[in-house]
């Protein structure tokens, strides 16, 4: 995986973990919450979200369980595991460190 793809994947992982830190959601709910919380600046497509959810679940950061959505349809709900909560803190610190570095460079321009 190239560095750009790794950064984008890491950013999506951070967004998903952060969103689920507030409680369990199904895939569409996760995408909707990210879009809403970003004031429509970020839109996560199904083709990116569901592979990320599967990868995070396989890594033991999320657990999934089948349930019924608000409209009565069967949906897989995801929630953070204890390992996922620890990883979220690591990812937040990494993001903050990156943001501080970018802010320093921007001040020089």
Produce the secondary structure layout:
Blueprint: H1 3-20, E1 25-26, H2 27-37, H3 46-58, E2 62-68, E3 74-80, H4 82-108
What's the quick description here?
Helix content is 63%, strand content 15%. It is of the alpha+beta class and 109 residues long. The longest helix is centred in the last third of the chain and has 27 residues.
Tell me about this structure.
With 109 residues, the chain is α+β, with helices and mostly antiparallel strands. It has helices at 3-20, 27-37, 46-58, 82-108, and strands at 25-26, 62-68, 74-80. The protein has a 3-stranded antiparallel sheet. Helix 1 packs across helix 2. The relative contact order is 0.15.
Secondary-structure element series: HEHHEEH
The average pLDDT value, as a whole number, equals 91
Helicity, as a percent range = 55-70%
Biggest β-sheet: strands ordered side by side in the sheet: 1-3-2
Based on the model shown, name its key terms:
three-stranded antiparallel β-sheet; 3 strands; 4 helices; 109 residues; alpha+beta; single chain; 63% helix
């Amino acid at each position: 995986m190239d560095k750009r793809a790794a950064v984008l994947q890491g950013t999506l992982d951070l967004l998903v973990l952060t969103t689920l830190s507030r409680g369990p959601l199904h895939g569409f709910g996760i995408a909707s919450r990210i879009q809403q919380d970003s004031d429509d600046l970020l839109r996560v497509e199904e083709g990116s979200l569901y592979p990320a959810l599967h990868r995070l679940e396989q890594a033991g950061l999320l657990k999934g369980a089948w349930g019924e959505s608000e409209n009565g349809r069967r949906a897989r709900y995801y929630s953070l595991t204890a390992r996922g909560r620890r990883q979220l803190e690591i990812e937040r610190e990494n993001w903050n460190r990156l943001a501080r570095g970018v802010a320093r460079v921007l001040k020089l321009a």
